[in-house]
Amino acid sequence: xxxxxxxxxxxxxxxxxxxxxxxxxxxxxxxxxxxxxxxxxxxxxxxxxxxxxxxxxxxxxxxxxxxxxxxxxxxxxxxxxxxxxxxxxxxxxxxxxxxxxxxxxxxxxxxxxxxxxxxxxxxxxxxxxxxxxxxxxxxxxxxxxxxxxxxxxxxxxxxxxxxxxxxxxxxxxxxxxxxxxxxxxxxxxxxxxxxxxxxxxxxxxxxxxxxxxxxxxxxxxxxxxxxxxxxxxxxxxxxxxxxxxxxxxxxxxxxxxxxxxxxxxxxxxxxxxxxxxxxxxxxxxxxxxxxxxxxxxxxxxxxxxxxxxxx
Length: 311
Prior knowledge:
By secondary structure, the chain is α/β, with parallel strands linked by helices. 34% of the residues lie in helices and 17% in strands. Strand 1 (9-11) and strand 2 form a beta hairpin. The chain is elongated, with a radius of gyration of 31 Å.
């Protein structure tokens, strides 16, 4: 209609618009038939500002099918689509090989991954397992191609050893938060070296079942070889019962991190298994926190009682 109205206007020498005389329906149909082949389609995508296109794609952050279609539309829509498609990645044993192939074919995708979750466990290498070694090797190759990961979550049973330390430390350039759930601590030196390999680490979480064997002790102190403690802002932890080495666990936390500099802490006790004694580890941990503490959350059973005087 706009094209028809525009063609029906005649301009005189004074640029004053004068509407042309009315024509019969037959003449109008013939004129439209002659103008139709010469009309060009309007490209609306190229006329929209890039910021507006990105804002529209942001509304599709939870629709992976729509995001995949947007990524195939044009090059201008590709970065915003990949940002939502690959910002959060969940790696299972069945998806690790395919995701590694994607990163090898398109290395630029690795820069979009910021939140990584590993859903495959590790039983350690006390008994060699070829399948497990192959999976961890592929994880190492994936981590080497992810330069911007900020958050790492391991919500499955994971045993830290020298091999796992070598693999996870590949994320040391950008990692800011790490969270374990179901961590079985047997190699204290490997775990300490793993956390020390992240220079930008700000948040640490040991949730749910954290098993700290009583036989594990702090590394012997050597004169002139004091290991500096790591700064920490956020601590989320499940304190194990006394029979699972709660006191040694708190001593290690105080030795590894600067607990007085922690700003927010969430302390849980007695969720997965009940202790036959009092939560002595909670009392010791509370006495280590402050004066920078701004937020504290305690989750304990109703019948739990904290002994001692807290200052």
